[in-house]
Design goal:
400 residues; Creatine Amidinohydrolase, Chain A, domain 1; Creatine Amidinohydrolase; six-stranded mixed sheet; five-stranded mixed sheet; 10 helices; 35% helix; 21% strand; globular
Length: 400
């Protein structure tokens, strides 16, 4: 991400990304992709409109330069940030020339101008609504629409050097948040106070070191994400809720506390989660802790290029299984991460995809049983010789 005077992606990096995707498109006989999912049009353009109440689209032909279609009020923002030079507008705003008041009519004009109206057009069926697809089929009757979601997801899976650089910034911010959360837990603060202290620390680091790098995420059609520096905290009996926001509950002796952090910088999200024991823990919890730590180390040892995701899962699951936790094995022990905090690839028993250099994962084997959840989460990148753990928070049994 960038502002008019902030950092920009190197154009050669962006162009190489486009050329790689176009090569895959030609191999599958796609004439163009219409990218509508926020993460995808950002991947192709490096532009995040922040507010998503009007559509943004990228038309990527199999040959030639892409076109970015935005609401007219977003033109200056898009011009300052986008790596795509061909920017077309819809909607009236001042004296800016626009194709149409309607975004879909503007899309049609671009499609016809590029000679793609009789082509095979890739769309994201996991994002395009049935209503919108019917409309496009009516206004572009000679085109054939095909789901390109898997093609796009595969392209996004392996990160280039620019993406990994952005993830390093995000993990540094996430680590600062976890350090602050730890300090608040030591002080026996409430869940809300722990979360706030972590988010303040992340904001402070961003302000001090990365003020020209955006910390915005991606939203749906009726919202916007101004800041994606999040910390969720659950403690004691609330651990079972998993994804609820922090509340007023104060942590106390004998609790387990799980702060979970997602930090986004320049569009890319790092994950850092830790389970803390407050003062002491039962024998059952301590045993689970030890097994989870061992399972994580087994997973880290297994992660390298050419290894199946299912084999990484099995390496961790075997540790848990041998310790007697067969009945409560997790469904997966991690997932890919990047433009989304939960991208499609899973470290699961039935996932046979081979890992490649540049894939980034959140690795989080855990055990959950009545009264306890034990799980640490780290962001790691698959490297040529194995993997690198990007998050640096202590990874052992944590008692405060």
């Amino acid at each position: 991400m960038n502002t008019g005077d902030g950092p920009r992606m190197v154009k050669s990096v962006h162009d190489a990304r486009i050329l790689r995707l176009q090569k895959t498109m030609r191999a599958q006989n796609l004439d163009a992709i219409i990218a509508t999912k926020p993460q995808t049009f950002f991947y192709l353009s490096d532009f995040n409109p922040i507010i998503f109440s009007h559509p943004t689209m990228v038309v990527l032909p199999a040959d030639g330069q892409p076109t970015l279609i935005v609401w007219s009020i977003r033109f200056d923002h898009a011009h300052a940030e986008s790596m795509i030079g061909d920017i077309r507008l819809f909607g009236r705003w001042g004296d800016r020339p626009y194709l149409s008041e309607d975004p879909n009519d503007a899309l049609v004009q671009v499609i016809f101008e590029r000679g793609l109206h009789r082509g095979l057009l890739g769309i994201e069926e996991d994002h395009v609504s049935a209503k919108l697809l019917r409309l496009w089929s009516e206004i572009m009757p000679e085109a054939t629409f095909l789901d390109a979601s898997s093609l796009i997801n595969q392209a996004r899976l392996v990160k280039d050097k620019e993406e990994i650089t952005r993830l390093r910034r995000a993990t540094k911010i996430a680590d600062a948040g976890m350090l602050a959360a730890t300090e608040a837990i030591v002080e026996r603060r409430t869940e809300a106070e722990i979360a706030a202290q972590a988010e303040i620390a992340m904001r402070t680091l961003w302000c001090r070191e990365y003020p020209d790098h955006e910390t915005a995420g991606f939203a749906g059609s009726e919202g916007g994400i101004w800041s994606s520096l999040w910390c969720w905290v659950h403690s004691g009996p609330r651990l079972a809720l998993e994804s609820d926001t922090p509340k007023s509950r104060q942590v106390r002796e004998g609790d387990l506390v799980l702060p979970q952090i997602w930090a986004t910088c320049d569009g890319y999200t790092a994950e850092n989660g830790r389970t803390f024991a407050i003062g002491s823990m039962s024998e059952d919890v301590r045993r689970a802790f030890d097994v989870v730590i061992a399972a994580r180390e087994a997973a880290f040892s297994a992660i390298r290029p050419g290894v199946r995701c299912s084999n990484v899962y099995e390496a961790a699951a075997m540790v848990m299984r041998n310790a007697g936790y067969e009945r409560i094995l997790p469904g997966r022990i991690g997932h890919s991460i990047g433009l989304g905090p939960h991208e499609p690839l899973s470290l699961a028993a039935r996932e046979d995809m081979l890992l490649e250099e540049g894939i980034v994962l959140a690795v989080e084997p855990g055990l959950s049983f009545p009264g306890a959840t034990v799980r640490h989460s780290d962001t790691i990148v698959v490297t040529r010789g194995g993997n690198e753990i990007l998050t640096t928070t202590p990874r052992g049994v944590l008692i405060v």
